[in-house]
Design goal:
With about 270 residues, the protein is of the alpha+beta class. About 20% of the residues lie in helices and about 25% in strands. Strands 4, 9, 10, 11, 12, 13 and 14 form a seven-stranded antiparallel β-sheet that branches. A four-stranded antiparallel β-sheet has the order 6-5-7-8. The C terminus is likely disordered.
Length: about 270
Amino acid sequence: MVSWSRGKPRLYLADTDGPIDLAGLVGEEIRIDVQPGFRCQHCGDRADASPCEECQSKPPFQQCVYTPGTACTYQDCPFPSFKRRSCAHNFVVYLVAKDSVKAGITQADRAASRWAEQGATHGMIVARTPNRRVAGTVEDALEAVVSTASTKEWYDPLDEPKHALTEAVESCRDVLTGPLEPFSTLPSDETALEDRIVRIPAHFAGDDATVSTLPGLTVDEGLQSEVLGVRGQILATKDAVVNFDQLQGKQVTVEAPAECLPATEAAQ
């Protein structure tokens, strides 16, 4: 998986001692090979798909996690340890700018990292809640005025993302009323609103329209090319894009300059 922390994207592979610095690869030539075979991304066992059949019966691969506003039972949760670890914490509801504006939820201390991992260019918090279930309820309400679906492909960013976000906020005001109003964090002053918009660091030296037309890397394929940049879970090169979200559980070999790798000349 690709995890972002403090504005830096890092690729984690199962059989390495540490992450690969993806930002450090920009401008470098690398080689990536994808071989057949699966390991479950959750438990690590060999499987026909990822997650494996057993892990699909456990969180986070449950509908209550995907749609907490309607599927979470909270008090009667059948997974109490997961609830304590991942749900019974402060959550935020946010808007992000990508190719369009979308709404989502995440744990309060992961907001900026979550936006970066989604490939957003800008983000802002519109509500704070005491747990995942309430955050899901707020998100469901916002779906009436802003999309909660998001592209996982390379995209052309909005020309005026801040303007798009502030326009979306005005629509959200009409929804965050009544029982949802106590969770709203929207200021009344437009200047204060713009100050809350966070810009996500960019690590990209190419053209979005061109990259959007490039093929993706699949199983039994190899790629040797110069890295143009990274957005979210996707690495862009001059010849193809590598969507690591779509490669979870697959066997991947990466060859890159030694200073970008954990400890060896190749990471698998």
